[in-house]
Amino acid sequence: MHSFQPNGLGMQKRKNGGKDVVVKKTIGRIYYAQPTSGEKYYLRMLLNTVEGCRSYEDIRTVDGVVHPTYKSACYALGLLNDDKEWNDCIKEASHLAFAPQMHQLFCTILLFCEVTDPRGKSDPVPKERDC
Fold first, then answer.
1. Is residue 58 part of a domain?
2. Average pLDDT of 100-124?
């Protein structure tokens, strides 16, 4: 394993007190994608849900069927059958966004996304966050 050295040396082999460094093959960070970003958003949903994929085709494969889009793979996995994706999106954004951004996100979801229950029977924003 290597690490970046900000002192101008670039990438250098990581030292761990003479011990071997255990390498885990995981994704370290998945950046936020807006619901209106289309396939990027659905790819992100799949990356957070599906385990053990080694290619983009593996991510789109559900029960042995390779789906043409990430969105259709999400439907096949049952991730889009209700408003859970939008509630999860709002919950995640509530940790990072302020009230104006939350308002804009909510309006974007209502205007451009397929919401089945726009009135929402439950409040998706955590109560401890005052928006």
1. yes
2. 77
